[in-house]
Write a structure and sequence with these properties.
Transcription Regulator spoIIAA, 110 residues, alpha/beta
Length: 110
């Protein structure tokens, strides 16, 4: 469901054969958080190309990503985010403002 590539900047995460960030995908992504935590100072880029829906488990992953990035000293970039997903994020009140801004400013994964 996801593919992870490690490069000089850090990590590039892409979605494979899915258009949803649901509980199954969120579980895979959550399993990657310890690896991100160990690579202090790295950039985690998550390519949302093709994703048009996020369920509550997906939002919980994003909340954890924001929290752990601050706690463990890595940064993240959410790129190629669809308008449908931006609308969903705007409606979720428990996400921090930084996450919403990351979605709105989302662009290239480079």
């Amino acid at each position: 469901m996801i593919k992870v590539h490690r490069d000089k900047q850090g990590f590039l995460v892409t979605f494979q054969n899915t258009n949803r960030l649901n509980c199954f995908v969120a579980e895979e992504l959550t399993g990657l958080l310890p690896e991100f935590e160990q690579a202090k100072g790295c950039l985690v880029r998550i390519n949302f190309k093709g994703i048009n829906f996020i369920d509550t488990s997906g939002f919980q992953f994003l909340f954890d990503l924001v929290k752990r990035s601050v706690e463990y000293g890595f940064s993240y970039r959410l790129c190629h985010v669809s308008e449908e997903v931006i609308e969903l994020v705007d409606r979720v009140e428990y996400l921090e403002k930084a996450t919403v801004e990351a979605f709105v400013e989302a662009g290239s994964c480079n």
